[in-house]
Amino acid sequence: MITIKEIARQLNMSTTTVSNVIHGKDGEVSDDTKKKVEKFLKKVDYVPNINARNLAQNESKIIGLALKARADKYENLIMDPFVSVLIGGVEETIRNAGYFMMLYISSDTDEIMRHVSTWNVDGLILFGMLNDDGIRVSEKYKKPIVCIDTYSLEGLKHFTNVGLDDEQGTYDMIKYLISQGHKKIAFLSDNQSGVDLARLNGYKKALKDAGIKYKSSNFLQIHPKSDEIDESLAEICDRSKEFTAIFCVSDLYAVTLISALTDRGINVPEDISIVGFDDNMLGQLHRPALTTVHQDVKAKGITAADTLLKQLAGQKTPNQIKLPTHLVIRDTVRKIN
Amino acid sequence: MITIKEIARQLNMSTTTVSNVIHGKDGEVSDDTKKKVEKFLKKVDYVPNINARNLAQNESKIIGLALKARADKYENLIMDPFVSVLIGGVEETIRNAGYFMMLYISSDTDEIMRHVSTWNVDGLILFGMLNDDGIRVSEKYKKPIVCIDTYSLEGLKHFTNVGLDDEQGTYDMIKYLISQGHKKIAFLSDNQSGVDLARLNGYKKALKDAGIKYKSSNFLQIHPKSDEIDESLAEICDRSKEFTAIFCVSDLYAVTLISALTDRGINVPEDISIVGFDDNMLGQLHRPALTTVHQDVKAKGITAADTLLKQLAGQKTPNQIKLPTHLVIRDTVRKIN
DNA sequence: GCGTACAACTTATGCGCAAAAGTAACCGCC
DNA sequence: GGCGGTTACTTTTGCGCATAAGTTGTACGC
Q1: Rounded to whole angstroms, how far apart are CA atoms B323 and A237?
Q2: Contact B240, B217 (CB under 8 A)
Q3: Cross-chain residue pair A105–B88, CB shorter than 8 Å
């Protein structure tokens, strides 16, 4: 790798002059030398040593994307197309802005923090952090942080959140189910916090507005860990007669559930209606095609990255960005009387 | 961020002493000072500045994972669960070895090369490169390179390839189809090079061994670009009566095709048998569940990363690693007479 | 014809770290 | 008692870059 010093030596000039040309500092250098240097740079295919540059500038041009997986969801997380689309959106945006992306997947917040400080990343995008983790990280590192899908009022004082109007999206879907004659609607999720809680609230609100009483027994818990999922699916299938429709917090769960039901001879949507949330390829390719709440995951990644880049450029950004959702009516809901 | 210099000042000793403790150079430093320094390091939560360290050491502790997307497959690539599982496998392995992963997605080899040299990565994992690209990159940067799923005899002189026995896997599947009475078997792919070509060879070989003549018209070309895919699917569906079974080079294509067929009232496996390759969640969750060739994508990522780490440690590795495949018989193949 | 302003450079410094080279004290040994 | 060897340090250097500070040379105004 050729260095500025060597280039300067060969061109018989100072390193500062070369450096000035590299940084396009016109006015500091004559057109003549500028051309000469530029030609030479191209010839030797000069690439700056990023470590030296970063050391001198005290920046890194790296944006960290930390995916925190709950230990019990690890496999699931990385399998989910949601994640790769998100990564794709972030990477593309960051790269176009001249930044680099360092990906970090862990279930340990401390490990993530160590990683962040080691690399002195310029900014951080966090996904899947527990609410308090985001705060912990942001308090320790005074770098801009953008969280994705984090629900925490306290957190919003410390970082920007990019999310959805989860409550509204769910509300719309439940309202749609009710309009199709459904009253016994279950809510399937793996936890009752953050995003899932917001969706649960939308569910409750829609029921309430329709005069249907919320029953806690209609909250169906799925255990995503690979050695438990079959059991929890079996339980849910066994109880399927209690409901006419099940709202699942993700397409993944919806499709998984439909498979389990189908295997037991319970047909969707004839015997029971199933809806999801996300609108990813899983539901799109499924037959019957999944009725679901659409969210634009790539846009989420892009928005998160854009917001972070703005903050790095010193611009103000709202501390809460909610992307819209819309219903995608396909074939897994039956109209009943 | 506290520096070694500052620590040395506060402890009233030289930076070298501190540095020696950090690097565990016993014998260079007394137990007393060692303990003192270690205590202090813990107290101030010292984290080395990686840029300075890398500059001084001329290494980076970064492994680059470059995903090259053919421009027309970009969306597709990042959507495919294949990619996220692969990323997950690589990231996990690299992280456990104390390395970091920089992810780079691009359709431009030159851009990837620039990225590589900018960051002075210690090693590179390439996926989706055209065969010659890998050689170009490896000739320019004398760093260890591991390619995934690259078919190039020439390339194997320059780098290690981690792949599958694609030919055998396909051979086994076609043989199975034939054992189920199928003779008119189509081969669906989007190109005829690399992995797909190896699978095509397996297909041809199995036909030949069964005394069935290969017809080039049985090669079905799918155009994955979003504005062309519907058209090519329609074409294929229109011709579906010509075959009793279609081998698809990926589960994604298989499931996509089944959806298209189903939408036209053509049932799988009653009217036509469809098989895939990969065995990912797409086919697992599909009903009827997809009969496919299993490959362990995570193992692929892990193996690639492991191999690279070995090379970085100066160990010899084979220049060609083929992971095994096996058939997964599920419900998309009908036995015919 | 002298001071000033400015263009076009060069020299020097430091970012934080690792490591080579240097130093000083001490111990044992013939 | 002088010398090699060892221990436990310190001083110095340099990685490649950016930049602050310094140095020319020259055109211009009065």
Answers
A1: 37
A2: no
A3: yes
CB atoms within 10 A of CB A53: 15
Q: What is the tens place of the pLDDT at every residue in B51-66?
A: 999 999 988 888 999 8
- Between CA A260 and C1' D10 the distance (Å) reads 71
A118–B47 C-beta distance less than 8 A: yes
H helices, E strands: number in chain B = 14, 12
Please report where in the chains the tokens 């559930």 appear, as a residue. A257
Whole-number Å distance between alpha carbons of B121 and A253: 39
Tokens 């969801």, located at residue: A73
In Å, what is the separation between the CA of B14 and the C1' of D9?
8
Q: What whole-number distance in Å separates Cα of residue A130 and Cα of residue A333?
A: 33
B101 to chain A: which residues are within 8 Å by CB?
Answer: 102-104
DSSP A225: S
Q: How far apart, in whole angstroms, are the C-alpha atoms of residue B121 and residue B103?
A: 11
Report the residue of chain B nearest A263, measured CA to CA: B287
pLDDT along chain A (337 residues), means of 10: 93 94 87 94 90 90 82 56 85 88 82 76 83 69 86 81 96 98 96 91 98 96 86 95 96 94 96 96 92 96 95 90 97 94
pTM of the full structure = 0.86
CA–CA distance, A65 with A70 (Å, rounded to integer): 16
SS3 B75: helix
Residue A332 CA to residue B5 CA, distance in Å, equals 65
Q: Taking each helix axis from N to C terminus, what angle separates B131-140 and B109-119, rounded to the nearest 10 degrees?
A: 30
- If you count residue pairs, one on A and one on B, with CB atoms under 8 Å apart, how many are there? 129
Question: Are B93 and B302 in contact, with CB atoms under 8 Å apart?
Answer: yes
